[in-house]
């Protein structure tokens, strides 16, 4: 969660909270439903297993009771065990942390709505079966009905390569390198911010965009290892100077991680 200025989504009219699916790559039958009172203990157990970041008990109550959260679970039809979960919230751009306000072009005002994904996780035994994709699609289809929401963004641990590849495959763009963003067991770790643009939203054009687009073009042409090395040097070292200036203290915020390997 970023701030308390989140926007309430009218989920009763935009989402079928008991939809049913059979995963194409297995015989598993799942149903999607919103979190409800009584799920807190199970969700906490899953988050402890999935993420190195600890969330306070109040957070688990919030995502179950507070309507500002899109808290969608994928459950086994027969056992009702939660197999996957996505939690997101919609808020004005001006209510985002300072380092995240650069995800939209300056033509969009600070009152423009954006969606922040707090968590996206799947139980280890059920990964790589399309659950994370289905959860994300449900969120995006809901947001498509809110034309004022122009971007969906998230933070991911810099070393979580599988999550980064997943988001890139879902049209999320790398936006910002956040040095020392996560505090995990007394040690700081970097994070990346990724964003996907919806409903006519678009990013600012920055040096980062130029370097990324140039690298992607060279990659398609079959570059040597030196080009790949230069890409990581430019994005992870030179961009550090710009992102470090925008880094704000956010110790009281809930920070997102993804565990979708």
Write the topology of this structure.
Blueprint: H1 11-14, E1 19-22, E2 29-34, H2 40-50, H3 57-65, E3 69-76, E4 82-92, E5 113-122, H4 131-143, E6 149-157, H5 161-169, E7 173-184, E8 187-197, H6 207-220, H7 225-246, E9 257-259
Parallel strand pairs: 5-6, 5-9
Antiparallel strand pairs: 1-2, 2-3, 3-4, 4-5, 6-8, 7-8
Helix pairs in contact: 2-3, 6-7
Given this structure, which CATH class of the largest domain is correct? Answer: Alpha Beta
Could you give a short account of the major beta sheet?
9 strands, mixed
Shape: globular
CATH superfamily caption of the largest domain: Gcn5-related N-acetyltransferase (GNAT)
Distance between the termini: 23 Å
- In total, the number of domains comes to 2
Number of strands: 9
Number of helices: 7
CATH topology of the largest domain: Aminopeptidase
Strand content: 25-35%
Helix content: 25-40%
Architecture per CATH nomenclature, i.e. the level-2 architecture of the largest domain: 3-Layer(aba) Sandwich
Query: What letter string, H or E per element, gives the SSE order?
Result: HEEHHEEEHEHEEHHE
Low-confidence runs of at least 5 consecutive residues: 240-253
| Helix/strand structural class | alpha+beta
Question: From the alpha-carbon coordinates, what is the Rg to the nearest angstrom?
Answer: 18 Å
InterPro entries: Acyl_CoA_acyltransferase, GNAT_dom, NAA60-like
EC number: 2.3.1.259, 2.3.1.48
Domain N-acetyltransferase: 30-199
Organism: Adineta ricciae
